[in-house]
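Progress report, Aim 2. The chain analyzed during this reporting quarter is listed below.
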Amino acid sequence: MAFKKKLNRILLIDDSEADNFFHARVIRKYGCAEEIIIREGGQEALDYLRLAVDGVFPQPDLIFLDINMPGMTGWEFLEEYKKLEAGQKAKIVIVMLTTSLNPNDAEAAEKTGTLNKFMNKPLTEKMLEEVIREHFADCFED
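Predicted structure tokens for the chain:
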């Protein structure tokens, strides 16, 4: 796949080391991001998003978020995420990536107003391409 430009960074938020390893590998293989950041919980991810380096927040282009995590669920992360300052969350597309088969979760995802997509794990290159084409079409060569 040829990219005109890559995403600056993708943030993976999942308490599963195996899932993070696998998803990062899929993203690296696809070659669509300059940097992949992994945080193993919602609070850790919020702390990362709030951390400015030389006055600049990390602002990932894309977040893949798990639902069921200890400490702070994906839903709780989204509630706290909404409270961030605009500069801490700009440019971000959020995809909930989960093993949940609960139809209530898919329905709740649609109602959040914060999520751009709800997908089932594991992340595949086809799923990644779908997200990139839908939200970052300018990344692709014509």
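The domain at 10-139 is CATH 3.40.50.2300 (Rossmann fold). The beta strands are 7-13, 33-39, 62-65, 93-98, 117-120. These observations will guide the mutagenesis work planned for the next reporting period.
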